[in-house]
Design a protein that fits this description.
Blueprint: H1 7-19, H2 23-35, H3 37-59, H4 62-68, H5 70-96, H6 112-124, H7 127-140, H8 147-172, H9 175-183, H10 185-205
Helix pairs in contact: 1-8, 2-3, 2-8, 2-10, 3-6, 3-7, 3-8, 4-7, 5-6, 5-10
Length: 209
């Protein structure tokens, strides 16, 4: 790898971005607590795949193309905001629903493929990912970086993201977290509803020059 690339700083920036509370980590936590480990891991896999897609696009210049064509970025922005508001509506509906038996709702859990698609859609419609990976590759990587350098960085960032996202799924699907969710289901769902709605509104009202 080129000596001009500081992989440790790149991984640190990516770690802060992926581990910080946001729509993806909220969705992973909520799915893992309410539907169990399998659904949570599947959703985390979808988020990881979406992250790898944005990373590849940014590494090979497609992110810059997207930002240069305002309508592409605006389309992603409205899709992302709409999806987050949809998740907010679902969480609010669950918060208002009658109490369920004190077990994980396995019967109503999404299939692995459906949970994966949900995680993928959540990250592919997140315009903040375009900005993050675009900045990461434009600032942290020299112009003379080789294709091998870019692939190594993509692999390292992707592997780290996979550990973080799947770690969230494992953590929040533990018996203790599941029991806590079952006791405070309405509180958790209300918090998720507010957080998803706030994120969606923020995306709608943020303008990128």
């Amino acid at each position: 790898m080129s000596s001009g690339i500081n992989l440790y700083l790149i991984l640190l920036a990516a770690l802060v971005a992926s581990a910080s509370p946001g729509p993806a980590t909220l969705a992973i936590a909520g799915t893992s607590m309410s539907h169990g480990r399998r659904a949570g891991l599947a959703l985390a896999s979808g988020v990881t795949t979406g992250s790898l897609c944005w990373s590849a696009m940014a590494a090979f210049g497609l992110g810059a193309v997207m930002l240069a064509h305002a309508w592409l970025f605006e389309a992603a922005r409205y899709l992302g905001a709409g999806y987050l508001l949809y998740l907010a509506w679902k969480s609010a509906r669950h918060a208002l629903a009658p109490a369920r038996p004190a077990t994980v709702a396995a019967a109503g859990a999404p299939s692995g493929s459906r949970a994966f698609r949900r995680g993928l859609a959540l990250h592919l419609t997140n315009p903040k990912a375009v900005l993050f990976f675009g900045s990461l590759y434009s600032i942290g990587i020299p112009r003379d970086a080789s294709a091998t350098d870019l692939l190594c960085i993509m692999a390292a960032v992707g592997a780290q993201g996979a550990v973080v996202f799947h770690g969230y799924a494992l953590l929040f699907s533990s018996r203790r977290m599941t029991a806590c969710y079952l006791r405070l289901r309405r509180v958790f769902e209300a918090v998720f509803a507010v957080a998803f709605a706030a994120a969606g509104i923020k995306i709608l009202t943020t303008r990128v020059s």
